[in-house]
From TrEMBL:
The lineage of its organism: Bacteria, Pseudomonadati, Bacteroidota, Flavobacteriia, Flavobacteriales. It comes from Polaribacter dokdonensis DSW-5. Residues 191-253 form the J domain. InterPro entries: DjlA_DnaK_co-chaperone, DjlA_N, DnaJ_domain, J_dom_sf, TerB-like. This is DnaJ like chaperone protein.
Amino acid sequence: MNSFSKWLGAGLGFTLGGPIGAAIGFAIGSFVDGFTLDEFKQEQLDYDKNRKPKGSFRRANTQSGDFEMSLLVLASIVIKSDGKIDQRELDFVRSQFLNMYGKQRANNAFKLFKGIVKKQISARQVCIQIREHMSHSARLQLLHFLFGIAKADEFVTKNEVEEIRKIAGYLYINQNDYESIKAMFYNESDNSYKILEITKSATNDEVKSAYRKMVKKYHPDKVQDLGEEHIKGAKEKFQSIQTAYENIKSERGM
């Protein structure tokens, strides 16, 4: 338990309390001998006592571990939204964590994930906790990851899309941002325009303006405070913006 505890405690802040902390506690209690959920709840209570007063600015306290735990909990919600747990989706989660965190950290995370996925979790309550502490750019990165999970089995169900849409709303991600990220995972004729949050009727100047706006919004530097391990995912999202712009330029002969 010592090495696991050391990993779990490293870089964690706001996710040690609230509904995310409860999910983590449930997961640990399901596979660690001699560990009781009451012990973990006490850790949450101790943490909550030391938190800043409600209403104070805490988003800067988000750590890499907070993002990691938030991903695990939200991923479990999306995977179960179609009424089954697909092995390809589980494999995608594991591969993403391997790419981001390396073998040992990914093994710990996936071990925890297999416990979290067994618990019924309120997406709304989890998202309220996340949005109180996490920047808008980091929340966009979470949404991008969730669509990747849904697409992992090569078929995105209506239930999965609806669950991600609800999560986006709970995270205060607006419809344009939601549709932009969703379009990064679909091959449709107007996807490039959706990614840039414009329509085909946009003028060339409006296309250029939209591109500059999206570059600013999705630049990988926006999530650099979360750690180098999350920059790769941000770069993938950023590349989708670049590709969409190049496609429109080629189509219009700009």
